[in-house]
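Problem 12. The chain below contains 501 residues. Write out its predicted structure in token notation.
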Amino acid sequence: MLRLKPRLTPILSLPSTAFFHSHFPNPRFFYSTSLPQTLPISSSSSFLPPKPVFSLNKAATFNNVNLDPRFLSCCMPEQRLKVAVLLSGGVDSSVALRLLHAAGHSCTAFYLKIWFQEDFENYWTACPWEEDLKHARSVCDQVYVPLEVVHLTGEYWKNVVSYIIEEYKCGRTPNPDVLCNTRIKFGAFMDAINSMDYDYIASGHYANVVHPSADQIDKPSILELSKDMVKDQTYFLSHLSQAQLKRLIFPLGCLAKDEVRQLAAKFDLPNKDRKDSQGICFLGKIRFSDFVARHIGEMEGIILEAETGDFLGKHRGFWFYTIGQRQGLRLPGGPWYVVEKDVENNVVFVSRNYFSLDKRRRLFRVGSLKWLSGSPPNHIKQLQCKVRHGPGFYNCSFELVSGEYGSEDVAVVCLHEDDQGLAAGQFAAFYEGQTCIGSGVILESWDDQGFPVCAKALEIARMEDKSKLGKPVKIKAKAEVPPEISVHNDCIELNRSLISF
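Solution.
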């Protein structure tokens, strides 16, 4: 039986009984005790005094803080709840905690310690977790909220980090943020506190969950876009299950980022001026390329121009690159973009014509589909789609087809606009208006609209002795550079801050 000691430094350790599919991410955990299908009722709730319902259009004082009630509209202020709050030490989760506290809920904060391996001491010493925990404690001490430290390092390594490494070895680009949400924050952690009778689990995500009324409890909870479309994180939450979604509150779903900063100042949070974190949480200050080199290694390969087959240079291993990437190529006369990879022969194909209109992708396949309601949407011809985190959507339609060898269904997605930054392993999230309805993993299978690689380049890629190529060709300046169309800021959001050399 799991035990949490009260106060600031208890540790939870969990059995390593969760597992994931060997090819596609499957965030579903298979523990001996599954998550409840209905929301547990806190045994302590009946001992709390009733709380009056108030209007959200007038300013009021909550726990000695003069607060506009509209800021509490995503906090279920009309109820008195027992809430487990995930606290990272950042501004967003800290404001979420204070809003829930201001709404009168009984809160306990949890800091998840997810990255420590004794034989990786160089990574551990560079990880800023101690500073994060210090800020988290200071925020809790302001309002006398208990803080628990939970160890999920084994689960994080097995269900997120190891998966990421294996996917990169296969030439795919996984999304660690989606996996961390489904498998750790709202997976292993949710399972760990399942017996503690918390009504809900809360975090500082920018998203909104609409739960059914008490007389319609059998209806599904709905994940909706947040008020701040730039910060919106429904993309990272799109692979949750209905059982997970039913237990979540996101207090920041009704707020814009500037309002969150204003509230941090109003609450006089000790971390009110702290900058937002960037990159993958387990890396700390370590560059992603250094992490990959440590765990996968390096293997010299060649870079070929997709249109001509010209030998342009060498690289450290195809796993350092993803479709749409331009940083780290170190080629003159650019910008150059990665357009294809030959995983078997360790060859990276690049082009300066990345934004050429006749080489864009609209059609792609998505597997490992998960629908937040539990079933596919009815109107599959009138959907919107996100293929990366950010405010941009595409109108799309898709067709469900049977997978190979009788495996699970696959969605063949058709975007109504062009996109050339589709990377296998990333997630595609689907929406009906304001509602996120689910997501799946982008597969390698493309149609004939993919970026064409010439026959000469393919032949050179298959050469066993590439030393016969001699020296790289001298790259000539491009005669005409078309206006760069930045549909999604250098493509893949994951590589915006992670892949740099």
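Discussion. The chain has eleven helices and 19 strands. Students who got a different answer should revisit the alignment rule from Section 12.3.
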